[in-house]
Specification:
Layout lengths: L4 E5 L15 E4 H8 L2 H11 L11 E3 L23 E6 L5 H13 L9 E6 L5 E6 L6 H11 L4 H4 L11 E2 L6 E4 L9 H12 L27 H6 L6 H4 L7
Antiparallel strand pairs: 1-2, 1-3, 3-7, 4-6, 5-6, 5-8
């Protein structure tokens, strides 16, 4: 059975003094789906659309670019390059353009002559009616390059559509309920493994980048060599606990 993993934060709080935006733990695709089916999440999204904007800060979020961070700390310093998902998310910030973007994305996804054939992984509406299109990053492209190329492919001006914050590796995206999802590929959260994984990493290394497409960080003189961290079954088992809905609704703690 393929382990479908993602870095997820369910420790959202309405009290801004207790927010945990710097936290993200490894969860399975099944755990994420359990969260997406929660009635309270559907209601919170409905409330946000009705004008209760403050509730957006209560929503859980995923980090699309990685399945794990060191010590569950969502920051660039805690990135595990080997945990890269080879997936990114394109934001459609104009609600009037979302349907057009979704339809065009699915067109190129079915076009066997397109570089983006079978590369669209998921489409979903955001809490404020905007759009999220998750895509597989083509071999050798960085996060930013992939987003720009995809925007051009579906007929949008990337410079007008994209914000530089969308390219940050530790980026997070608030999730909405399963009813806001309009498309899901069978490859959603599917890990890249084996020969393809090695080829993708090598494509980055050939460009002088790290195995996740970020610039390589040169070690300081006399610094102690670091050992690369890889994702293993140990992480899966350590994070096997189910999503506790008591802790994910409106900032309530199980304590």
């Amino acid at each position: 059975m393929v382990n479908r993993l993602i870095a997820l934060n369910t420790k959202h709080f309405s009290d801004k003094q207790k927010n945990n935006r710097g936290y993200a733990e490894t969860q399975t695709g099944e755990q994420l789906d359990e969260l997406l089916r929660q009635e309270w999440l559907r209601q919170d999204v409905a409330d946000i659309r009705a004008g209760k904007e403050e509730k957006k800060d209560w929503l859980p979020f995923i980090c699309p670019h990685y399945t794990a961070f060191k010590d569950n700390h969502r920051s660039q310093d805690s990135i595990i390059p080997e945990a890269f998902t080879f997936m990114t998310c394109v934001d459609i910030d104009n609600p009037k353009l979302v349907r057009q973007a979704f339809e065009k994305a699915l067109e190129v996804n079915k076009d066997e002559m397109s570089e983006w054939y079978d590369m669209v992984l998921r489409e979903a509406y955001s809490a404020r009616g905007k759009g999220h299109i998750y895509i597989r990053i083509p071999k050798g492209m960085t996060i930013e390059e992939a987003q720009r190329a995809f925007c051009e492919e579906i007929g949008f001006n990337a410079d007008e559509l994209l914000d530089s914050s969308c390219f940050t590796p530790e980026r997070y995206i608030y999730v909405t309920g399963i009813d806001q999802e309009t498309f899901r590929s069978e490859h959603w959260l599917e890990p890249i493994e084996g020969e393809e994984l090695e080829e993708r990493r090598e494509a980055y290394l050939q460009r002088g980048l790290d195995v996740d497409g970020r610039p390589l960080v040169k070690p300081e003189a006399n610094a102690t060599p670091t050992v690369a961290v890889s994702i293993s079954e140990d992480i899966v088992e350590a994070e096997r606990g189910r999503v506790d809905t008591r802790c994910t609704h409106r900032g309530r703690s199980s304590a």
